Amino acid sequence: MSNAWLVVGLGNPGPDYSRNRHNIGYMVVEELASRLGATFKTHKARALVAEGRLGIGGPRLILAKPATFMNLSGGPTASLAKFFDVTADHVVAVHDEIDIPFDTVKLKRGGGEGGHNGLRDISKTLGTKDYFRVRAGVGRPPGRADAAGHVLKDFSRAEAKELPFLVDAAADAVELLITAGLPQAQQKYHG
Predict the structure, then answer these.
(1) Average pLDDT over residues 135-156
(2) 13: DSSP letter
(3) pTM here?
(4) Which of 22, 90, 95, 116 is catalytic?
(5) Residue 3 — pLDDT band, cuts 50, 70, 90?
(6) Residue 148's pLDDT is what?
(7) Are strands 60-66 and 47-53 parallel, antiparallel or unpaired?
(8) Pairing relation of β-strands 41-43 and 5-9?
(9) Which of 9, 63, 131, 172 could form a disulfide with 91 if both were Cys (CB 3.0 to 4.6 A apart)?
């Protein structure tokens, strides 16, 4: 068993989706890759993958952006976990969360998927819900607007100005989760 961590940023492939709320997971793993000086390359597991170490001699990170649509994120995640010999307790899914206000980051391990089809597919293909989630808040749509339509829209102009801070905070949360553990990360981000 390797000591690597698989960090999967959830999103939809292609330029039409690149600035959508649903693609915040992609944005976060891109930020992490930038910090590591790592470049994404196509992997046979139907994903773009970048690898690096978190600090000198630190944990090995495998950063992934599934090349499938969000609802089919599980196949690439399970294939990469198998390929890199990563167990579910070293898998981190980074995703959008409508039940959290915009600009807020929360972390958890296990639990339900809250109607998030990307998470549902990962739980199904990994055969467990017991993996970590870094949840980047995108807020609920106004009024009775459709949640699915909300996450498939680009961030508003006001949100776009704050988006780099949210991406940065979520990337920091992933690093803290891996280096210090879930309780310490939750203490910082849930306080």
Answers:
(1) 89
(2) -
(3) 0.96
(4) 22
(5) confident
(6) 84
(7) antiparallel
(8) unpaired
(9) 131
Residue 116 annotated to the active site: no
Task: Judge whether residue 108 has pLDDT over 90.
Answer: yes
Q: Which CATH superfamily is domain 5-190 in?
A: Peptidyl-tRNA hydrolase (3.40.50.1470)
Average pLDDT (152-160) is 93
Gap between the Cα atoms of 58 and 166, Å rounded: 24
For range 107-126, the mean pLDDT: 94
pLDDT recorded at residue 2: 65
Contacts of 113 (CB under 8 A, 6+ apart): 119, 120, 123, 129
10 and 94 in contact (C-beta within 8 Å)?
A: yes
Main-chain phi, psi angles of 178, to 5 degrees: -75, -40
pLDDT by residue (tens digit) across 56-106? 889 999 999 999 999 999 999 999 999 999 999 999 999 999 999 999 999
Task: Locate 142 and state its tokens.
Answer: 């106004």
- Report CA-CA distances (Å) from 128 to 15, 73, 74, 113, 120: 32, 14, 11, 12, 10
Instruction: Give the Cα-Cα-Cα angle 120, 98, 189 (nearest 5 degrees).
Output: 95
First-last CA distance in the chain: 34
Phi-psi region of 46 (alpha: psi -120 to 50; beta: other; left: phi over 0): left
